[in-house]
Amino acid sequence: MSTVWNGAGRRIYMQEVGTRDGLQVEKVFVPTQDKIALVNALSLAGMAKIEVTAFVSPKAIPALRDAETVLREIDRVAGVVYSALVPNVRGAERAIDARADELNLVMSASESHNLSNLRMTRAQSFAALSEVNAIARGAKAAVNISLSCSFGCPMEGDVPESTVLDWCERYIGELGARGVTLCDTTGMAYPGQVAALTRAFRERWPETELTLHFHNTRGMGLANVLAGIDAGADRFDASLGGIGGCPYAPGASGNVCSEEIVHALELMGYDTGVNLISLIDASMRLPALIRHDIPSQIVKAGRRLDLHPLPDDFNATRERALGRSTGRD
Questions:
Q1: pLDDT at residue 1, rounded to an integer
Q2: pLDDT tens string 293-322
Q3: Cys staple from 306: which of 204, 215, 300, 302, with CB 3.0 to 4.6 Å?
Q4: 13-326 domain in CATH 3.40.50.150?
Q5: Nearest C-alpha neighbor of 185 from the set 227, 216, 210
Q6: Is 153 labeled as catalytic in the residue annotation?
């Protein structure tokens, strides 16, 4: 019988990707000091891991052209892992020099998406990741590998579970990756699929750090998180305010929203280690920084028991109602 509705204090690790996955698609450049302040706020809110930035070409993603400065100048909190996405050897060298705790390497389970996104075949990507992995090992930096389109490709459709697991086997067996992230890059995942793939991964690699990364493109983000938890996952990427999306994935809207997931899991009895009020406060900074509204329903509506004041005429209305019920005029 499923126990997903009763967390009973089970620990779930929330990992913030908004400062990379979210900001990378924004047209407005968020000032460096505001990025640093945002990461610091997320650290103090209790996020287990923060993907701070990406060491990519400034021409490709100008929104993150200040990666070195941001990663060097944040206030680091003990126990929080500060990660950075790196696409190649040069990016890895820059990230290591800026003191990244973890290098997040990315390729796709889909050949079409890999070619569209990274301009390489999957075999070429794996060879490039192997070079980066060697550099990381030499620097004693942890490596996580994110496998895009693990739950479906917008150009190819379903990606076979066997394909996803075969690539995971290579990451873990050949590269010795500490962690693997299965990414729902375009929001194609659904709960039954999530549960099956999570169980299959956990059965084969029970000691490997597994992260699930969902988008809410089709409104199934929270349902997929719960399916993952029920199947044994305990780490989830999420984005502050629900911002983000892959610039190379047609139709992919924002990531699952950090404060929405924390809010739901806390109501169900899970221990996220996150101060929800602090997280909401951080999210409320975003509209001014990115100059548009954010998807977060928690920012819009508040927490479940954030109550509203009584109407100004409440007492007078009550008196009139009581008068009618007792026959008084």
A1: 42
A2: 999 999 999 999 999 999 999 999 999 999
A3: 302
A4: no
A5: 216
A6: no
